[in-house]
């Protein structure tokens, strides 16, 4: 059996901008991928609301710094075949990553270095990595999210170029979530059920390709 670790924030956890709770299990994108790939693949969903690439948030009870928790996850879930990283949204908060995609790119590079250089159990190799650029923000009238992310609506348009740059530098696979889904105007940063399902459907083929599960026509098998 192949193993995929989906490492992300609330977009991976499945935060519903309408209810402010969690999307139904099979609406969350990691579970859409798991259902499509079937019993051959185990997809581990490791999403946490507010998670950053490599920045501390001292105002919450859970550890949100992705660079601090990733080594533990790599150790506990090894051996891994594919690591999917979709982070960066929360780096654009001014009190974490400073509000710029530039810092988010640096944090993403740190995560890649951790995954590639981690001392895996003897006999195991580092997983293949798929970097997913978060979708750009949408302007919102929701007061709290407007205060938290409103300054970065234009800045979020640079996610694609920043993640592409990291993928090219480390010769990794890359996917732009903004090509297939858009954030909800209810809060400007999260995905409704339709859009998170759409993201999962779009990621099936890239993940299957990294796992070597495509047929001759390029479809998952």
UniProtKB/TrEMBL annotation:
<protein>
    <submittedName>
        <fullName>SGNH/GDSL hydrolase family protein</fullName>
    </submittedName>
</protein>
<dbReference type="InterPro" id="IPR036514">
    <property type="entry name" value="SGNH_hydro_sf"/>
</dbReference>
<keyword id="KW-0378">Hydrolase</keyword>
<dbReference type="GO" id="GO:0016787">
    <property type="term" value="F:hydrolase activity"/>
</dbReference>
<dbReference type="InterPro" id="IPR013830">
    <property type="entry name" value="SGNH_hydro"/>
</dbReference>
<dbReference type="Pfam" id="PF13472">
    <property type="entry name" value="Lipase_GDSL_2"/>
</dbReference>
<feature type="domain" description="SGNH hydrolase-type esterase">
    <location>
        <begin position="6"/>
        <end position="191"/>
    </location>
</feature>
């Amino acid at each position: 059996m192949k193993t995929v670790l989906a490492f992300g924030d609330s977009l991976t956890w499945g935060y519903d901008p309408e209810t402010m709770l969690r999307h139904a299990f099979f609406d969350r994108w990691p579970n859409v991928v798991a259902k499509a790939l079937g019993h051959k693949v185990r997809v581990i969903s490791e999403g946490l609301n507010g998670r950053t690439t490599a920045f501390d948030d001292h105002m919450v009870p859970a550890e949100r710094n992705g660079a601090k928790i990733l080594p533990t996850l790599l150790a506990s879930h090894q051996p891994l075949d594919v690591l999917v990283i979709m982070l960066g949204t929360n780096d654009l908060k001014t009190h974490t990553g400073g509000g710029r995609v530039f810092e988010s790119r640096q944090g993403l590079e740190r995560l890649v270095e951790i995954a590639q250089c981690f001392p895996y159990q003897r006999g195991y190799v580092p997983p293949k990595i798929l970097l997913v650029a978060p979708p750009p923000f949408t302007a919102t009238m929701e007061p709290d999210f407007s205060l938290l992310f409103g300054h970065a609506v234009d800045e979020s348009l640079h996610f694609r170029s920043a993640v592409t740059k990291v993928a090219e530098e480390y010769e990794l696979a890359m996917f732009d979530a903004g090509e297939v889904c858009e954030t909800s105007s209810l809060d400007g940063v999260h995905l409704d059920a339709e859009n998170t399902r759409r993201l999962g459907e779009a990621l099936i083929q890239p993940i299957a390709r990294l796992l070597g599960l495509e047929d001759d026509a390029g479809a998952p098998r």
